[in-house]
Write a structure and sequence with these properties.
The complex is a heterodimer of chains A (191) and B (636). Helix content of chain A is 65%, strand content 0%. Chain A has helices at 32-54, 57-73, 75-78, 84-102, 111-114, 124-131, 135-147, 151-158, 162-178, 180-190. The longest helix of chain A has 23 residues, at 32-54. Chain B is mostly beta strands and 636 residues long. The longest helix of chain B has 17 residues, at 11-27. Chain B is globular and about 80 Å long. Classes of the chains: A mainly alpha (191), B mainly beta (636). Chains A and B meet through helix 1, helix 2, helix 4, helix 6 and helix 7 of A and helix 1, helix 2, helix 3, strand 11 and strand 12 of B.
Chain lengths: 191, 636
């Protein structure tokens, strides 16, 4: 991927994804029906979890496609994992982190950072606080409070020790708690 | 109080955070990537690894189960068959039948054929005799179609469904049907049934599913039949008891899509299921991500590939003990024989059940998927098998074709040289379509006796190919129809400045070459694998810069430059979609579906047989809200 040029098929670009049909189907193609079922059922949810973790819809979509491709390659194996959705989420997250580390992706301002929503559901204060978190911290927060995983499940999905989950969550929530925006607005609501 | 409440300002903030996360998730804009785009991407990744000599071999961990359940009220016998050898094939069916029609069952069983295989080739392209039209989805059905669109290919003919695997009373199982693909409606479903698949006709609805966790009969595979369009249902427990392991907390059985066909009063259904082991509970947290394989003596947890992105399983492990992190014996794993049986890749393949107390099982090794067809003489089941059971580094997909005259007694009659796909009968030939064993390209193979197969030579495809999905082919009603789709790569984006020209492949997304405009001399570039090279490097505050050999900056390209060039040049290119049809395997017609709609075709990958012809759901248009179309074909 050329990091300096815009990604085709993104929300912000006029270019849309082009459907291309394989003429080079893998010679070890897995059971497509079960993968297609998985893809149809879980793609959206995994993608949205990645999007709010990465705060970059475009990167999330790239990561999701990459993770799904890896899952497809070894579907016989992945499908028997206890939590294949979690596996895909984690692979996508790790891939995105590697991309972030490799390149700065100049000029790419995550769409969510630019978002100024008129929707009543958009909580600008919480949003600012979330942006202060690292990707790793947000991943823990997303796993725990968006997806609803337990600490043990979060550890399994992210491939870290339960203690690491606890510490990252603690730091993340401390950041949120200490956020002036959160604290003040919460006090306003609750008093 | 949750831990979030402990850390934040209380329940109010708790709710605010969760609410905001939900809002962000709902607002995320994810492009709709077709599933076969994923397959293509996977294929490219594998080729890339091979190119660099990684020598990766697939580490196959298999516990998938393919189960076909045959139901009959007429024949009480259940005859297990030895599938170790290929038996003689049946005589050719005299004519094919619809999956949804109910022809009288034949009393003549298949007989061995001694005739030499005959080929109807060479093929000939003739003018299309079918009529096709494109229809917009009925506005009142749009919401339904948006929900079920991804699962259309899972249906049988007109029927499709969605399910949510949750515990009662919250789990939802919905079935939608359409006569024409334009107007859709929900079909009342049997209560307490997580639907896996079904078949609908004017006379009856047959649904196959399972009783979900929480139900007193949790795990039981059930056939529910309604003859009054879903008002009342007759349930038949098929007796498939997955056993206590299903709820042991360590092994989880999951069911996937099912295909249902009917011939007369006999319903045959496939049920794909696979078991998943909570390896973390046995081997510790993280083992799931590392992966594991089943060995004779126990479980082997694979070593973590600690690349820069962490233990991602990003590359397929190679064979060898160095790839195994640790082994756990069956005793240490605490799995008894029954539980191990669920894990071992020797599942039930075909199972007949008529209510008798001792159902028989018919196993034929690991099954990756099954496709059914009803013919005049009985049923065909094309089963993707992997024999022997794979271990680390082994992957040997193949297909086995089974025949049953009554849905109860099945026998292996041949091995089509494809990995998986669809099967049926056309012009007195067995016809199968799917990925070639060697190349992976979709092919059509035919046989007059199911033993000797040959690839049919299709009319010139002009560089096009067939859709990857097995649902991109239909063999029913004595006809074969194939989706033929042109590959439209993104075009190269070009920009120039100060006598330097930049060309980036893939709509500005692929490899980039930089050359001197006057001399054509290549100055450098960028590749996915190697990054910047030559006199091209990342610039400070710029996208990239091109320098002279002395290091002086000749041209500086900004993000705006790149954006502008890509947006101006890399426009959407329409996919080319044709459908080719034959009812004699000699004469083929090709119809362009692009001409049926004024809007650019984005994708289509499924062709479904209807009573009168075919239905092809498609996505057209540009922008964030592409439109749905349904191409309706009527056979003459």
């Amino acid at each position: 991927m050329d990091p300096t040029l815009p990604r085709a098929g993104t929300h912000d670009d006029v270019i849309q994804p082009i459907h291309v049909v394989v003429d080079d189907s893998p010679d070890d193609a897995p059971s497509t029906s079960s993968f297609e079922t998985f893809y149809a059922r879980h793609r959206d949810d995994i993608g949205r979890a990645l999007a709010i973790t990465l705060r970059d819809d475009e990167l999330a979509a790239d990561a999701l496609d990459e993770a799904m491709a890896r899952a497809y390659q070894r579907w016989d194996q992945v499908s028997r994992f206890t939590n294949p959705q979690g596996w895909v989420y984690r692979v996508g997250l790790n891939w995105a982190r590697s991309v972030i580390r490799k390149i700065t992706r100049p000029g790419r301002t995550p769409r969510a950072f630019e978002m100024v929503s008129a929707s009543p559901a958009f909580d600008a204060d919480v949003d600012r606080a979330l942006r202060q978190l690292s990707v790793d911290q947000r991943a823990v927060v997303v796993c725990r409070f968006y997806i609803g995983y337990s600490e043990a499940e979060t550890a399994g999905v992210l491939g870290i020790r339960p203690g690491t989950v606890k510490s990252r969550l603690s730091r993340a929530l401390e950041t949120l708690r200490s956020s002036t925006h959160i604290r003040n607005s919460a006090q306003e609501v609750t008093r | 109080m949750t831990d979030l409440d402990d850390h934040m300002a209380g329940p109010t903030s708790h709710r605010r955070l969760i609410s905001h996360l939900s809002h962000l998730a709902a607002d995320a804009q994810l492009r709709p990537t077709p599933v076969d785009f994923i397959a293509r991407r996977a294929a490219r990744r594998r080729r890339g690894r091979r190119t660099i000599g990684a020598g990766a071999a697939a580490a196959v961990v298999v516990a998938a189960i393919g189960t076909a359940v045959a139901l009959s009220s007429a024949n009480p016998s259940i005859v297990p068959q030895d599938t170790s050898t290929v038996e003689s094939g049946p005589t050719l069916p005299r004519s094919s039948t619809s999956e949804t029609s109910a022809p009288p069952p034949s009393i003549d069983g298949p007989q061995p054929s001694t005739s030499a295989p005959t080929s109807p080739s060479p093929t000939e392209l003739v003018p299309s005799a079918e009529t096709w039209q494109a229809s917009a989805i009925d506005p009142a059905s749009a919401q339904i179609v948006d929900r079920i669109f991804p699962n259309l290919g899972m249906g049988s003919g007109r029927l499709t469904w969605t399910t949510d695997e949750q515990s009662p009373p919250d789990f939802v199982s919905q079935v939608f049907t359409s006569d024409d693909g334009v107007v859709w409606g929900a079909v009342p479903t049997a209560p307490g049934l997580a639907v896996l698949g079904g078949l609908e006709s004017e006379e009856r609805i047959d649904l196959v599913g399972y009783a979900p966790i929480g139900d007193p009969d949790a795990g039981a595979i059930v056939l529910a039949t309604s003859t009054d369009q879903g008002v009342t249902w007759a349930r038949q427990d098929l007796g498939y008891d997955v056993g206590p392991a299903w709820t042991s907390g360590v092994i989880h059985l999951r069911f996937a899509a099912s295909q249902v066909v009917r011939r007369g009063d006999t319903v045959v259904a496939t049920i794909e299921a696979w078991s998943m082991l909570d390896i973390d509970a046995i081997a510790g947290a993280g083992a799931m991500q590392q992966g594991y394989v089943i060995e004779d003596d126990g479980l082997a947890v694979l070593a973590c590939e600690d690349d820069e992105a962490g233990c991602t399983m990003g590359a397929v492990p190679t064979v060898g003990d160095q790839q195994v992190d640790r082994r756990i014996s069956w005793a240490d794993a605490g799995l008894d024989e029954a539980e191990r049986a669920l894990l071992e890749p020797e599942p039930v393949v075909i199972r007949a059940e008529d209510g008798s107390s001792d159902p028989a099982f018919w196993t034929a090794g690991y099954v990756g998927g099954t496709r059914l067809a009803a013919t005049a003489e009985g049923f065909l089941a094309l089963v993707q098998t992997i024999e022997p059971a794979p271990r680390i580094g082994e992957l040997a997909p193949a297909s086995s074709l089974y025949f049953s005259s009554d849905g109860l007694t099945w026998r292996l009659i041949g091995r089509p040289p494809i990995q998986s796909g669809v099967v049926g009968v056309v012009a007195d030939h067995f016809v199968a379509s799917g990925p070639d064993l060697d190349t992976g390209s979709n092919i059509v193979v035919i046989s007059s006796d199911a033993e000797q197969w040959e690839e049919i030579s299709l009319p010139a495809t002009e560089g096009r190919t067939f859709t990857f999905s097995p649902y991109g082919a239909s063999v029913a009603h004595g006809r074969i129809a194939l989706l033929e789709v042109g590959d439209q790569p993104l075009q190269t984006v070009r920009m120039a400045k100060n006598g330097v020209v930049v060309e980036a492949e893939g709509g500005g997304f692929g490899d980039m070459v930089v050359f001197d405009e006057a001399s054509g001399e290549v100055l450098g570039g960028w590749t996915n694998d190697g990054g910047y090279s030559g006199n091209v490097r990342r610039g400070e505050g710029a996208s990239f810069v091109v320098t002279s050999d002395a290091g002086d900056v000749i041209a500086e390209f900004t993000i705006d430059d790149s954006n502008r060039a890509a947006q101006e040049q890399a426009q959407l290119q329409e996919a080319v979609l044709n459908v080719i049809v034959s009812d004699d395997l000699v004469h083929w017609s090709r119809t362009s579906l692009n001409s049926l709609t004024d809007e650019p075709l984005v994708w289509a990958e499924v062709i479904l047989a209807t009573t009168e012809g075919w239905m092809i759901p498609a996505q057209v248009g540009q922008g964030d809200a592409p439109d749905r179309r349904v191409f309706i074909g009527e056979a003459t």
